[in-house]
Design a protein that fits this description.
With 199 residues, the chain is of the alpha/beta class. The chain has helices spanning 51-64, 75-81, 83-96, 131-154, 160-163, 169-178; strands at 12-18, 27-33, 67-73, 104-108, 120-123. A hairpin with an 8-residue loop joins strand 1 and strand 2. The termini are far apart.
């Protein structure tokens, strides 16, 4: 069972990102403030849910949340500041957009860059422990998936509709064959030193 809150007396925003390990596209982040009495049996870490379940949960989260926001940091920005800082920046941008100022931030992961004067708590695998972080993981994941599916129409060679720009063998082989786009993260190792050839 996911926990509803860390501290019942505080307005808590759960924060999570999606697309950190991808070879192309932005990193997305979401921040969600849920009511303390929010309940949903399906809600869980987005990685443990099917795409259908995530799509079903997204409008429920958006309509039930006291406040929510999604933000992104581009591949170009990732190359300038590195993916860890870009993940923090995406979360900061999402928090910036919240219509309610949170009193505490619940961050998925073990590191975070302080946001203004708001205290935060880093929680390893927090998206599988707290409802607000799980909700944020679903919004970040589904909005990023939508974005990569849109980009797929302009760059179908890379099959972003299916792989969402993760480092699949198909995606890496497509980079070898077609080169990179402006959406690829040039600071990433796009092609490993040795790729196993399929005979």
């Amino acid at each position: 069972m996911l926990k509803k809150f860390l501290d019942k007396t505080l307005i808590e925003a759960g924060c999570d990102e999606a697309g950190r390990g991808c070879l192309a596209g932005p990193v997305f982040a979401a921040a969600v403030i849920l009511p303390k009495n929010f309940k949903n049996k399906l809600l869980n870490d987005s990685k443990k849910l099917s795409d259908k379940d995530r799509r079903e949960l997204r409008p429920i989260i958006e309509s039930s949340a006291l406040a929510w926001a999604v933000a992104q940091v581009s591949a170009e920005e990732i190359d300038k500041i590195n993916i860890l800082n870009a993940s923090f920046l995406a979360m900061h941008r999402a928090i910036d957009q919240l219509s309610i100022i949170p009193e505490c931030l619940l961050i998925d992961g073990n590191r975070f860059k302080q946001y203004k004067e708001i205290p935060h708590k880093c929680i390893i695998e927090g998206d599988g422990k707290f409802m607000s972080i799980a909700a944020a993981s679903i919004l970040a994941k589904t909005y990023r998936d939508d974005h990569m599916e849109e980009l797929h129409h302009s760059f179908p060679h890379y099959d972003w509709k299916s792989n969402k720009a993760y480092a699949t063998l198909f995606h890496r082989n497509a980079i070898i064959e077609h080169g990179i786009t402006e959406h690829h993260r040039k600071s990433f190792t796009l092609i490993p030193d040795q790729i196993e050839l399929e005979f």
